[in-house]
Amino acid sequence: MSGQSDSSPPILIDEEILQKAVLEQTLQDQARRIAKAEGIHFDEVLQICLEYKNIVKIDHLWDFTSLTRLDLNNNIIERMEGLDSLMNLTWLNLSFNRIEKIEGLESLQRLELLNLSSNRISVIENMDGLEKLSNFCIANNLLEQLDNVLYLRKFKNLFTLNLFGNPVSKENYTFFIAAYFPNLTCLDYRLLNDKTKNEAAVKYHYVIEELRHNELKTQQADDAEQSRKAELQLHTDAFVEFLNGAHLFDSMFNDDPEAETIQSVTGVDHLLQTFEHKMVELCMKLFEIGLVEHERRETEVNSFFICQTGAVTDHELKLSQILAEFEQQLQERIVELHQLSDPDELKVKLSQYNNDISQLCNSLMSLEYHLVSQLEDINEKLDINISVMVSNFAETVQGVFAQCRDLEDVYNKNIREIADATLEKVAMESPEDDMPEEVKVLFSEKDPVMDALVTGHDNHLLKISDRETQLVARVSAWKVSLIKEIRDNELKRNCLGIKDILRYVDHARGQLEEFQ
To answer: Nearest Cα to 237, choosing from 157, 182, 293?
Structure first.
């Protein structure tokens, strides 16, 4: 179960090996010649087989973004790594290697078949993202715990499972698997018939019911957590997270060392409750405005992308029609050139056809320029609209936080009056009977009390200003990032469009070279 072990030296996957493998799989002679002449585009390869190569490490696969099937069986690979870019992979065969741990599968969310047979794996783990997994082969490994196999119950599409040759595959374990995996149709290369499933369901009835009950509770808890995260993400995207409550208010007093003592003074509790109520009211107002503004921004951005996609789609349709017509004409002209025997007439025709190619190039470039101008207008409109939205939202934010600062000023003024009265009572040795001892100690001198109030007031204002600055800065940065990303993507599209035009023009001229 340790993979290939012949006398050839271990190797790493590199570009040369990959190119050779792709060429070997390009069966048609014409396709192979084209691949050699024009180069291999790894991002267009769908399948690659690297079996029996003595490969020790998975590497150099980052360009294979379209790959759907990868066979790396019968090598000496020790770690599952280097698979992050293979997001379209549906088939992965790593059987007959030296792998000890399941890992590195986070990006393979489309994977349907995973073969890890004949390795050194002792635990089934780290497969949570493989929601489409339907075939899982892990025969001839080191699995010992049947309970660990239950990890696979989360894969609702799993219908083929191979555990043969593991310590876990003991006598009569078939009933255990059949009971816990009712949707399974094939186990260890054998069909699970209805009789076996029914007997298993009866034998494990009570434990299955308890398991389902526990799984339902877990699922409900997970759903609630996912809902909470999604809600928080929405609030974060709207830049108003934790403003739907007393979070900001509470944070203002968290770092206030004398806050608890001062709050014990008679009359402060009522002031504090009033302050909190009004502060939370303002925060909730800003929170609700933030969600509405977020939805408006999202609607504007979605409208932009609809317009952008429509413009590009229309452009591509016109482009393909022009190229299809010209390609047909080009092939007709090539046939005509083959029939010409007069060198002078051939020269005239070649000159005419080359001029036609130049005109085609100009037409295509003009079409591309028109699209660029069209998209620039759409981009400019988005920039203006989003800038207005962000600016208005920022003004609203600043206005609400100014009101928060006013509340803090009023609270600070009122609490100073209470503090002055309390200092006077303590100085005259006539405090209330229920005044806590720590209050008497703090108010025995004026300076510490005033210092505490000043420090607290400054901290409160700082917390409010920091949250305001953070919100305004983030929404402004979002706008800049959005517009920059759109313009960068358009620049890339434009560059690729021009390259495609020039490449086709070179191709067309190349068709005429044999006659010159």
So the answer is: 293
Helix (H) or strand (E) holding 420: helix 343-427
Q: What is the pTM of this model?
A: 0.69
Complete DSSP assignment for 57-79: E--S-TT-TT--EEE--SS---S
The residues, any chain, with a CB within 8 Å of residue 15's CB and separated by 6 or more, are 60
Q: Where are the domains of the chain?
A: 11-218, 247-515
Output the CA–CA distances (angstroms, integers) from residue 207 to 202, 203, 222, 247, 368, in the order listed: 10, 9, 22, 44, 66
Query: Which H or E run includes 113?
Result: strand 113-115
Is residue 162 within a helix (H) or strand (E), and if so which, with residue range? strand 160-162
Query: 136 - beta bridge partners?
Result: 114, 161
Please report how many Cα atoms fall inside a 13 Å half-sphere around the Cα of residue 32, on the Cβ side: 10
Annotation: CATH topology of 11-218: 3.80.10
Give CA 139 to chain center in angstroms: 33
- Exposed, middle or buried, 380 (CB in 10 Å: 0-12/13-18/19+)? exposed
> Would you state the pLDDT for residue 474?
97
CA-based nearest residue to 407, from 185, 213, 234, 252: 252
Here the tokens at position 392 are 């208005």
Supply the pLDDT for residue 32: 39
Long-range contacts of 82-87 (CB under 8 A, 24+ apart): 82/13, 82/57, 82/58, 83/58, 83/107, 83/108, 85/61, 86/61
Distance CA 150, CA 172 (A): 16
Contact in structure between 265 and 419 (CB atoms under 8 Å): yes
Measured CA to CA, the distance from residue 305 to residue 311 in angstroms comes to: 10
pLDDT value for 170: 78
For residues 509 and 300, what is the distance between their CA atoms, to the nearest angstrom? 45
Across residues 278-307, what is the average pLDDT? 97
